[in-house]
Each structure stands twice: as structure tokens, then as C-alpha cells.
From TrEMBL:
(R)-pantoate binds at Q61, Q154. Pathway: Cofactor biosynthesis; (R)-pantothenate biosynthesis; (R)-pantothenate from (R)-pantoate and beta-alanine: step 1/1. GO terms for molecular function: ligase activity. It comes from the Bacteria. It catalyses: (R)-pantoate + beta-alanine + ATP = (R)-pantothenate + AMP + diphosphate + H(+). It comes from Streptomyces lusitanus. The gene is panC. This is Pantothenate synthetase.
Length: 332
């Protein structure tokens, strides 16, 4: 499938529309993660719908000293990959097309959620991101827009903007795509030297360590709930040699765990990576409520996000994993 390259909103609006239009927003330098988004969009739009991929490096979301000038621009390859993945069109507007009057004086404010984690590390980033997303939603007029869950805070803010400001569009999050070794796919991965890439693996390894610690804790809690409290049942278990296992399950499940243990397991991996050559320089490790990206407490139940951001060499990378607390209820 060959995607049509469009440079202006007028050209995009001139296209005949029959079914649903699904839009995938990117800054270009497309990779398999983007291809997954496009394929998902193709499935949502269906054979009678249309998939549009936007390619626009938005200057508003880059702060002073960030990598706007060196951000990879590979439009020809992007159009090819988009078409192969199922896109009908690639909308690649110029800065003047998106911001015809120069930098906009009226912008979207990300609010308190936009000042946490990524927002604290990159002041103004989310205001610029939401402003361009709002503009691109208006310019492309989709029925549904898809975004990767790797940028979890971005996705949460887009969903909040669409809900709070009554945008008539469905927002779909698509799971993170990873390399075989676990590194989350990112256009910035190409900046990494072989040695830096080895260090960068600590981001996903830390998340996996936190996830595994959480899974073990939850499994023990489930096991503890199955252990009977009555003396007769305990004696019956003892007769078949299970009482020690039951006692161990109770002991571990009722010791310190939960969010604190998840953070500790992830932090251990990151601390070790800080001693590598080259070292990993941690920006933050956070375990947050996806509703507002505030840190969760030890008694938290429900959906959470374990998020990390760090620098390796001159490259800044982010990653996250979703977790659920309280799956099996409290051990007793």
C-alpha cells in the first residue's frame, strides 16, 4: 500500500471521506512502534475508512537545550513505512502551516498534572504538546486518534484535554512495543552508542524488576487467602506437609510489600546502572495514579503506572509499565 504525502490541511480536507478516519500523530523517524500504531488504526478504520499519519516536529514542546535541531527527520522513509503499515495518507505540514501567525499567543495549559514528572523535568513541554495535538485534531478532523502508552503521561493529558474541552474524538492507547532485549522502541534510540544502549537497558530492567516483585507479592497474598485459619484444617495440611508452605506464604504476604517494595526493587536496578560505564543518570522513578500522576500510597488499590526517566550520555529516555494493586484483596 502506498501512502499519499500531503503538505497542507486544504489538501487533506479535499480528500473524499466515507468511513471512519483514524489518525496517528508522530514526530517522524518512524519505527516498529509507530507501525504497530498504524496497523491498529487500520483495524479500527476498517477497509472503508481512512488512516492518516501526521509527521510534525513540534517546536513548542522542545525546551532550551533540548534536541529540536538534531531530532531525526526521515520523511521519505516515514512515508514508505506508513504505507507498508496500512496508512492511506501522511500529513506532513510545515511549521508555517501549523502556526501561520508564528508562535501562538493562545495555548492549551496542561494544568497541575502537566507540572509533574515529565512536566517538572521539561517545563512547558506538555503545554506545547497539548497545543499542537489540539491543532492537529482540528486540522485532521479524525473520528479516532491513537497514541502509544510509552508516553503514559502524554496519553493521560490528551485524554483529559479531550474530555475537559469536549473534543468529539475517541482516544485509543496502544501498548508499548519493545526490542527483543526489552528496550522500549523510541526514535531517540538511534542516538545511543553500543555501550550507551547496554546501559539504557536498565530502564526496562528496573520496570520488570518492580513488576516481578509486585507479581510475587500478589501471588503470595492469593496463596495466603487460601490457607485455612481453623486448627482442624491446619492439622490436615500439616499431615500432607503443606503447613510450612502455608506459614511461609502468610509470613511473606504480610511483610512490607506493595508500592514500597515495587519502588525498592526498581531502584536497586537503577542504582546499579548508575555505576556502569557510561552511567545512567536518573531523572525520576515514580509509581503513580494514572488519573493525575501523583505518587500512590502504600494502601493504594487499583490501576497504577511505574514510570522512569533517565539520561544515558546525551540521550534522555522514558519508559513505564502499568500495574494493578489489590487484585487479590488484603491478606488476612
Amino acid at each position: 500500500m502506498t501512502a499519499t504525502l500531503l503538505r497542507t490541511a486544504a489538501d487533506l480536507h479535499a480528500r473524499a471521506r466515507t468511513g471512519r478516519r483514524a489518525v496517528v500523530m508522530t514526530m517522524g523517524a518512524l519505527h516498529e512502534g509507530h507501525a504497530t500504531l498504524i496497523r491498529t488504526a487500520r483495524g479500527i478504520a476498517g477497509p472503508d475508512g481512512e488512516v492518516v499519519v501526521t509527521v510534525f516536529v513540534n517546536p513548542l514542546q522542545f525546551g532550551a537545550g533540548e534536541d529540536l535541531d538534531r531530532y531525526p527527520r526521515t520523511l521519505d522513509a516515514d512515508v514508505e513505512l506508513a504505507g507498508e503499515s496500512g496508512a492511506d495518507a501522511v500529513f506532513a505540514p510545515s511549521v508555517d502551516e501549523v502556526y501561520p501567525g508564528g508562535e501562538p499567543q493562545v495555548r492549551i495549559s496542561a494544568g497541575p498534572m502537566g507540572e509533574r514528572l515529565e512536566g517538572a523535568a521539561r517545563p512547558g513541554h506538555f503545554d506545547g504538546m497539548l497545543t499542537v495535538v489540539a491543532k492537529l485534531l482540528h486540522l485532521t478532523r479524525p473520528d479516532v486518534a491513537l497514541y502509544g502508552q510509552k508516553d503514559a503521561q502524554q496519553l493521560a493529558l490528551i485524554r483529559r484535554m479531550v474530555r475537559d474541552l469536549n473534543f468529539g474524538v475517541e482516544i485509543v492507547g496502544v501498548p508499548t512495543v519493545r526490542e527483543e532485549d526489552g528496550l522500549a522502541l523510541s526514535s531517540r534510540n538511534r542516538y545511543l552508542s553500543p555501550a550507551e544502549r547496554r546501559t539504557a537497558l536498565a530502564l526496562s530492567q528496573a520496570l520488570f524488576a518492580g513488576r516481578d516483585r509486585h507479581a510475587a507479592q500478589e501471588a503470595l497474598r492469593a496463596r495466603a487467602r487460601e490457607v485455612p485459619a481453623t486448627l482442624a484444617r491446619a492439622e490436615a495440611l500439616s499431615a500432607i506437609g503443606e503447613s510450612r508452605a502455608a506459614a511461609d506464604a502468610h509470613a511473606v504476604a504480610t511483610t512490607a510489600g506493595g508500592p514500597a517494595a515495587v519502588r525498592a526493587a526498581a531502584r536497586l536496578v537503577l542504582d546499579e546502572a548508575a555505576r556502569l560505564d557510561p552511567p545512567l543518570r536518573l531523572d525520576y522513578l515514580a509509581l503513580v495514579d494514572p488519573a493525575d500522576f501523583t505518587e500512590i500510597g502504600d494502601d493504594f488499590t487499583g490501576e497504577a503506572v511505574l514510570a522512569v526517566a533517565a539520561r544515558v550520555g546525551d540521550t534522555r529516555l522514558i519508559d513505564n509499565l502499568p500495574l494493578t494493586f489489590g487484585t487479590f484483596g488484603d491478606a488476612s
